[in-house]
Structures are given as C-alpha cells and as structure tokens.
TrEMBL record:
UniProt feature coiled coil, ranges: 363-411, 546-583, 618-673
Compositional bias per record (Low complexity), positions renumbered to this chain: 736-749
Protein's name according to its UniProt entry: MCP domain signal transducer
Domain of life assignment: Archaea
GO cellular component: membrane
Organism in which the protein naturally occurs: Natrarchaeobaculum sulfurireducens
Length: 959
C-alpha cells in the first residue's frame, strides 16, 4: 500500500471523486475485458465442438463404408467356400447363386462362377453371361484372376455398367478363387449406390480413391454419372486424412473446384476428411461456414452485446453513487476544517443513515468530547501547580537533613566511630536511616575491638603451624621417593610378565592349530578308508556285472549263429520259389502261344485271359522272391557284422574284468595303509590336545600374575601421586600460615586507627587456637616417621590462589562465611561467640569439599581423582579400617568430640580457604542484622598508614 501511495499523484489522492472515477473506469474496463475474453473462449469452445462433430460425422461415414466393403468381401468368401461351389456342378452352383442374389437384394448386381483355365462362365445370375467368356465380364481385366487368391479377393475400381434390363449402375467387382480349385473363381459385382451417404442441407459428401478420383457421393453422381471418376483437386486434406487420421479444416471459397459441379455455395466452408480403413478411399464432407458455425456466430454476437451492456450499466450506477458520496464527503471535509480552526459550534446534522451519516454522528460526538477534555485539562493544570509547590517544600527539608547526615558519615569515615546522627522527627524515612546508622556504628565499634584481640592470637598460631608444616613436608618427600622406586620395579615386572604372556599365547595358538590339522588329517584318512572300501565293493560288483555281460554276449553270439543257419534255409526256399516261378512263366508263355494260334471260339479267348493272369502272377512271385532274396542278403551281412562286434565286445569285457581285479587289489592295499595312517594321526592329535591344555593352564597362570603386577603398579603409582600431592598440600599450608600471620599483623595495625569507646575488658574471649596448635605439633612429632599415609584421605589442602593472601580483608553485609565476609583465616566469624567442637567439625567438612574441588582442577595426573571414592590407596584404606585409624589420617587433624558421640578429625587450619555458602559457619543473628545495614555509606582512607586502607561495605581492605 505504501508503494501504491507513492506512485499515485497527490492531486488524485486528495480528491475522492477522481479516485472513484478512476476505480470505476478500471472496473468497467475489467468487466469489458473479462466479457470479451469469456466470449472468445466460449466461441472457441463451440467452434471446437462443431469441428469435432464434423470430424465425427466424416468418421461415421467412413466406418459405414468400411463395414459395407468388408461385408462384400465376407459375402464372396462365403460363396467361394460353400459346398455348392465345392461340388463344381454348374447347375447346383447356379441355383445357389440365384438364392444369394435374392437374399442380398439391392447390394448385388451380378454373381458369376467362372472357369479360369477354359476362360468360360460356368454359371451366372445374369442370363446374358451364361456360357459366355471371361471377356464378357465388364470391369475385370486379366490381371485380376492372377492377383485373386482363395483368402483375399481382388477388388476393381468403380465403373458404370448396364444391367440385365438395360439400366446403368455404378458398380464394383470382387474376384476370389475357390479353395482346392485354383482354376475356379467367383466374380461378385456389387452396386455402389446401394450404400447411401447421408445428405443434410447443403452438406456435400464425396468418396475418393487412391488416385483422388470420386468413386461415390451423396448427389447420385448427378446426371448420367458425370461426377464418377472426377479428380478431387484439394489434395492436402486428403493426404492429411491418410497420414494423420480424421481431420477438419476451414477453407476459403474455390479451394476445391470440383465442388462447383455440385453447385456448392461460393463461400468459406468447413471440410472434414476420414480414411476408410481396409481400402485407399477417403470420405470428405463439405458444409458452408455460415451453416456449420451459425450458432457460434450467434453466441459471439450476443456475448459482445452483453459485455457492452454490462460496462454501460456499471458506468451509470457508479456515476450516480460516486457523485452523491463525493458531495457528502466534500461537505463533511469543509465542516471538519471549521472545527480545526476552533469553531466547535459548526452544524453537523444530516438526514443520511448510512456510513456517511454515521461519520457525521462521529464528528459530532468528537466535538462534544473535545469540549469536556478541554475543561478537564484546565482543572488538572491548576491542581498540578499546587502539588508542585508542596513537593518543593519537602525537597528543601530533605536536602537540609541530608547535609547533616553527610557530615556525620564523613566523621565516621575519617575513623571517628563515636559520631551519631540526630533524628529530628520531621521525616519518618530519614529518622529510620539515622537510627539504623547509629546502631551500625555501635556494632562496628565492638567488631573492631574484637578483631584487634583476635588478630594477635592468629599471628602467634600461624608461626607455630609454619614450623610444623616444614617438618611434615620433609617426611613426605622421603616417602614419595621410596614409593616411586617401588612403582618403577612393579612396572618392570609387569612388562616382563606381559612378554611371557604373549609368547605363551602364541605357543598355545600354534599347538591348537597343529591339533586341528591333525584332526583334519585323521578325518581325511578315515574318509579314505571308507572310500577304499566302497571302491572295492564297487569293483567287485563291476566284475560280477561284466561276467554277466560276457555270458549274455556268448548267448547272443550263439543265437546269431542259429539265425544265420535259418537264413540259409530261407535262401534255399527262395531259390525253390524262384525256380517254380520261372517254370510257371514258361507254362503261361506256352499257353499264350497256343491261344494265339487258335482264332475261333470264346473258350479260346478265355484261355488266353487265364494264361495272361498266370503269367502276371508268376512275374509277381518272381519279383517278390527277388526282393526277399535281397533283403535276406542284407540281414545276413548285418548279422555277420553284429557277430563280429559281439565277439570283440566279449574280449574287451574280459580285459576290463582283469583290470578291475587289479584295481580291487590296489584299493585293498590303500585301505590298509589309510587305516594305519588314521591310527597314527589320532595318537598325534591326542598328544597335541594334551599339550594345548597344558599351555592354556600356563597362560592362565601368567595372566593372573600379570594382573597382580598391573594392580601393584597402579597402586604404587597412586601412592606416589598421593605422596606428591601431600607434599604440595603441606607447602601450600605453610604458605597459607605465613600469609595468615602477615595479614594478622596488618589487621592489628589497621584496627589501631579506629577511635572507639568500647572497653578492652568487655571483648569476648578469643578462640583458643594456641592450645590446639600445640596439640597438633605434638601429633606431628609422634606420627611423622611411623606412617607415610596419603593425607588426601581427609581431602586436599587449599589452593594458595584461593587463600586470603592478597593483603586485604573484606567485610560485606549479610555474608557470614564467604571470602568477602568478616571471617578470619580459620573460617570463624570474629563477631560470633567462641567456636565450639561442632563448629570446627562443620568447618572441616566444608574445607575438605572445597580442597577436593580445587585439587581436582589443579591435578595433571588423570590416574588419581581426589573426588572419587575409587581407586583408593589400599595402604590408606587398610590403615583407615584398622584400630589405629588416627595414625592414617591427616597429620594436622585432631580428634574432637562432637554432639553425635563420634570422633572426627578436625584441622584447626582448614578454614584458611573461603567458606562461601557454608550454612554451618557460626554467626550471631544480631550481628548479621547489623552488618546488613552497611550499604556503601562509609569509606576510610589514610595516606599516613603504610599503604593500608579499610572499607566498610562492598570494597575490600587492600594493602
């Protein structure tokens, strides 16, 4: 929308009438465009439907003509395959042809049955053609009879001929030969006009053949068949129908001049073409465009009229509505301008109840609301002025009180803790601040006095801890060196055992492979024995079979010899028959001679006939005897050949039997040797398996020893690492104690600056650290040489980076045990009462947890995790479980009785690290409340003190 506003000129945007007119114009143009496009689409759709109808009509005509030609071909095929034609009786065929002519009625012109070899007409339905020649048949040339077959008939081109009564007709002739009688054929002449082409209005339908000549039309060929054979000159659409299928085109007048012959209207027309399948014919339908697309033109015309009427109607309605709306909006704009100039009495009444009327009502309501808002704004302005004056007086009084309080705070910041604020009672909030500040100063006075006494005691205890830590550090270094030597020896032993383990594993693998190979050889030998036995049995069976074959061959030879003897007997019989036949032939010859000499009498003729028959019989007997002799000769030759082959086969069988016998003997010997081999391999396999079992036992023993060695090495490394960490921890403790002593001195010097009214005798008793440190020192001297136990059993010492070695102490309100709170190096709040055994126990737990976390971050050896319960040094674990558990603990720890009746090892120095977030740190509730009142209000600076400054609040005490 922003882009549209920038593109539209301001002159148009300022006038509603112009914008409404432009919108109305765009609407009219859109409606007109949509109407014309829709009309064009509708017209195109109707045209396509009309063209499809034209194409479908041409296709229907083509299908009808196709069915007519196929029917004619089936008719002549039925005739050629009928029983009457197969009888080849002209009379029967003629009767059958007349029946067919009567049955086919209008489709049939003539039917003839012809003799192709004699070139005559044997039968015909036309009496003029009976007993005629092939030349009397019109439209059939000589090539037709050569091209016609018993399955596919020959088809002629359409032509005009005279009928039996002298009438002319356009016909087409089919010729088909008779099956199993290639010299006979059926000639079937069908009348083309029997197939009617549909004629509707000015539609002209023609059928053209492969030469684009008209063979049929729906005009009856006009007068005297003058259109038959005319050339159709619009060849492109004919070619398209043959190649692309049925099609429809719109052509201009005169494209096909042949239409003038049919008196077709001289205007644009629509032509549809469809191919007649099975022939080379094409059906073409022609219809004037005004007739074909009359409805299309009507739809197009009325569509344009409706579109124009819609545009005009939109323009009229829009002009009326737009003018009234524009006038009303202009009038309202003028009245709104008067209201803008300050005239709130303008007339905003109207008789309209539509949106514009409601807009008038809205402006009227807005005018009333403006009046009320102006009056309310004036009243609010006067009230605000009075309130401003009252607040100014309060601010002046607060500024005076703040100046007084500022002077008191500056005095306290300079070290005068006796200064106090005066509550005048004029402002409750300021009075509360004065009371809280005075209470805070009183608490600070008591705190400074207690800190001064406590710092002295801490300095003394720190010196004693430093001395004891140095002695423990020396002993830990000696333990570390001894454990490192043990670890190196265990590592060397572990490597040796690993080498032995690898060698034994390789030997065991080799032994197992030998055992497996031996088992495989034994299996092969066993299978060899079985195979040898099977071969021996098979050879025995073969020998027996050959013996049986040899016996059968001898029987066959004997049988053939008997057959040969019988054949010889047959030869003798045939010779006898041949002799008898020759004698009979001689007798018949003599009888014939005698018969020829006598020339009279029927008996003599009969005698001659008998003699002739006897002669013929004797000749047949002689021929049969000769043939039998030839066949027996062939049998004799084959018998002799078979006898020789059988004798040779018998000899081969005897030879094969001898060889099989030798193979049997060899297989028996192989069987014996394989059996012996199997026994030996079984013994080797058993011995190898025993050796493999022994090797496995040795490998298992070496694995156990290697495992023990690895565990020893690992534990030694853990102990060495723990000893190193103990030494490092003691170093850190020594440093922390030294830093603590230094800080205690600094704290005492800084506290001397403060001026307080608190008497020194009222300060609480300080913590008895000296006594605890002396007890710790005694324990160190007794335990040092006897037990080099890992001090990490109770946790690691604090990281020096976390100890309060930065030369400053920080006091923060609300924190009783953090590094920013008022805690000493033992993790005890100096403002609280004297710490009890339970307090030391809680401090020990917090110190151990924090030291473990810090040691985990600083540790570089991943094999030792001080936070994890495993792996634990077995020496430390054993010592912890024994009755002398106290000797295995931290040398700085001391058993202290707690409320639950158990002994805990408590390190009085374990509070050297910060105890941030420790809920068990002792603190006085009243003192904590006083500390929370300190809110960054005072700061003390003294350049004469040796670089030491103390800040109460969030700032630390830095050196």
């Amino acid at each position: 929308m922003d882009i549209a506003r920038r593109l539209v000129p301001a002159a148009i945007r300022r006038r509603y009438a112009v914008k409404f007119g432009i919108a109305l114009l765009i609407l009219g143009l859109s409606v007109g465009l949509i109407g014309f496009v829709a009309t064009a689409e509708l017209t195109s759709g109707v045209e396509d439907r009309v063209e499809n109808d034209q194409t479908a009509f041409a296709s229907q005509e083509a299908q009808g003509l196709q069915m007519w030609t196929e029917q004619n071909e089936r008719t002549i095929s039925v005739m050629a395959h009928s029983d009457a034609v197969a009888s080849d009786d002209p009379a029967v065929v003629e009767d059958r042809l007349l029946e067919w002519e009567e049955h086919l009625a209008d489709d049939t012109f003539t039917i003839s049955y012809v003799d192709l070899e004699g070139e005559t007409v044997l039968s015909s339905t036309d009496a003029a053609l009976r007993d005629g020649t092939l030349g009397d048949l019109d439209g059939v040339d000589e090539a037709a009879y050569d091209e016609a077959t018993a399955d596919v008939p020959w088809t002629s081109s359409p032509y005009v001929t005279e009928g039996e009564l002298g009438e002319e007709a356009a016909v087409i002739t089919y010729v088909q030969t008779v099956p199993d009688a290639e010299d006979r054929a059926i000639v079937y002449t069908a009348e083309l006009e029997a197939h009617d082409l549909e004629a509707a209005g000015d539609v002209t339908t023609v059928v053209v053949d492969g030469d684009d000549e008209i063979v049929l039309d729906n005009a009856g060929y006009l007068d005297e068949y003058e259109t038959l054979g005319l050339e159709y000159d619009d060849t492109p659409i004919v070619a398209a129908a043959r190649t692309e299928g049925a099609t429809t085109q719109q052509l201009s007048a005169g494209t096909a001049s042949v239409l003038d012959t049919y008196e077709f209207p001289s205007e644009e027309y629509v032509v549809s073409a469809a191919r007649v399948y099975g022939t080379d014919w094409v059906v073409l339908t022609h219809e004037p465009e005004s007739q074909a697309f009359g409805f299309v033109h009507t739809v197009n015309e009325w569509g344009h009229y409706a579109t124009a009427a819609g545009v005009v109607l939109i323009g009229l309605i829009g002009a009326v509505l737009g003018r009234n709306t524009a006038v009303s909006i202009d009038r309202l704009t003028h009245k709104a301008g008067e209201m803008e100039e300050g005239n709130l009495e303008v007339d905003l009444e109207t008789n309209r109840i539509d949106n514009i009327g409601r807009l008038y009502d809205g402006f009227d309501s807005m005018r009333v609301a403006l009046r009320q808002q102006i009056e309310e704004a004036e009243a609010a302005r006067e009230e605000a002025e009075r309130e401003r004056e009252r607040i100014a007086e309060i601010n002046d009084q607060l500024e005076r009180t703040a100046d007084e309080y500022s002077d008191v705070m500056e005095a306290a910041a300079d070290g005068d803790l006796t200064a106090r604020m005066d509550a005048d009672g004029e402002n409750e909030a300021m009075d509360a601040i004065a009371a809280e500040f005075n209470a805070m100063l009183e608490e600070i006075e008591r705190t400074v006095a207690e800190l001064n006494s406590f710092a002295t005691d801490v300095a003394t205890a720190s010196e004693q801890v430093t001395a004891s830590s140095e002695e423990v550090q020396s002993a830990s270094e000696q333990v570390t060196e001894s454990i490192q030597e043990i670890s190196d020896g265990a590592e060397h032993q572990n490597q040796s055992l690993q080498s032995v383990n690898q060698e034994m594993s390789g030997l065991s693998t080799t032994t197992e492979e030998i055992a497996a190979s031996s088992n495989e050889v034994a299996d092969i030998a066993s299978r060899t024995v079985d195979t040898g036995k099977e071969g021996q049995e098979a050879a025995q069976e073969a020998i027996k079979a050959m013996e049986r074959v040899g016996s059968e061959a001898e029987d066959a030879v004997a049988e053939m010899r008997r057959l040969e003897s019988e054949v010889q007997q047959i030869d003798e019989l045939i010779a006898t028959i041949s002799e008898i036949a020759r004698q009979t032939n001689m007798l018949a010859l003599n009888a014939n001679i005698e018969a020829s000499r006598s020339a009279s009498g029927d008996d003599e003729e009969g005698f001659a006939v008998v003699a002739q028959e006897v002669k013929a019989l004797s000749e047949d007997v002689a021929n049969a005897a000769d043939e039998a002799e030839h066949r027996l000769e062939a049998i004799r030759e084959r018998t002799e050949q078979s006898t020789g082959e059988v004798e040779g086969t018998s000899a081969d069988i005897d030879d094969a039997g001898d060889r099989v016998q030798e193979a049997v003997e060899a297989l028996e010997e192989i069987t014996d040797l394989a059996h012996k081999t199997n026994v030996g391999v079984q013994e080797i396999s058993a011995a190898t398996e025993e050796q493999a079992a022994s090797t496995q036992e040795v490998v298992a023993m070496v694995d156990d020893a290697s495992t023990v060695s690895e565990e020893t090495t690992s534990e030694a490394e853990n102990v060495a690492a723990a000893a190193e960490e103990q030494t490092s921890a003691l170093t850190q403790v020594t440093k922390a104690a030294s830093d603590l002593s230094s800080q205690s001195t600094q704290l005492s010097d800084g506290l001397d600056r403060f001026e307080t009214d608190v008497d020194g005798t009222s300060v609480r008793e300080s913590v008895e650290v000296s006594t605890d440190l002396e007890s710790v020192s005694t324990d160190l001297e007794a335990d040092e040489p006897a037990d080099p136990t890992d001090p990490l059993e109770m946790g690691e010492p604090a990281d020096p980076a976390e100890s309060p070695s930065e030369g400053g102490i920080t006091f923060e309100s609300g924190d009783s045990g953090s590094e920013d709170g008022p805690s000493d190096s033992l993790g005890t709040d100096p403002l609280a009462t004297e710490p009890s055994a339970a307090d030391y126990d809680a401090a020990e737990s917090t110190w151990a947890a924090e030291v473990a976390n810090e040691g985990s971050a600083a540790e570089t050896d991943e094999s030792v995790d001080p936070l994890a319960p495993d792996p634990v040094d077995p020496l430390v674990e054993e010592a912890a479980d024994s009755d002398d558990a106290g000797a295995a603990a931290d040398p700085l720890a001391e058993p202290t009785a707690v409320d639950d009746g158990t002994d805990e090892f408590v390190d009085p120095l374990e509070g050297a690290d910060d105890l941030e977030g420790d809920e068990s740190a002792p603190a006085d509730d009243e003192q904590v409340k006083d500390n929370e009142q300190v809110k960054d209000n005072e700061q003390v600076e003294d350049d004469e003190t040796a670089g030491t400054s103390f800040t109460f609040g969030e700032d630390s005490v830095d050196e």
